[in-house]
């Protein structure tokens, strides 16, 4: 069972992940030489956000 605040935290993490994707995509367009590195960061950050979203409050 999810804690009372878990849905709020998951929503905040989702918003944060979306903001990161937008920022990184804008950066990729502005700095094409950094494309591979920025795409790797985007993937890694989304993985961490997903892991945080599914972990229990005590593990968080």
UniProtKB/TrEMBL annotation:
Lineage top rank: taxon: Eukaryota
Stretches assigned to the IREH1/IRE-like N-terminal domain: 7-60
Pfam families, per database record: IREH1
Record protein name field: IREH1/IRE-like N-terminal domain-containing protein
Source organism of this protein record: Stephania yunnanensis
């Amino acid at each position: 069972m999810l804690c009372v605040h878990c849905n709020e935290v998951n929503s905040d993490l989702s918003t944060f992940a979306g903001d990161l994707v937008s920022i990184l995509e804008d950066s990729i367009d502005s700095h094409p030489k950094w494309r591979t590195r920025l795409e790797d960061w985007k993937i890694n950050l989304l993985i961490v956000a997903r892991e945080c979203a599914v972990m229990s409050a005590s593990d968080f």
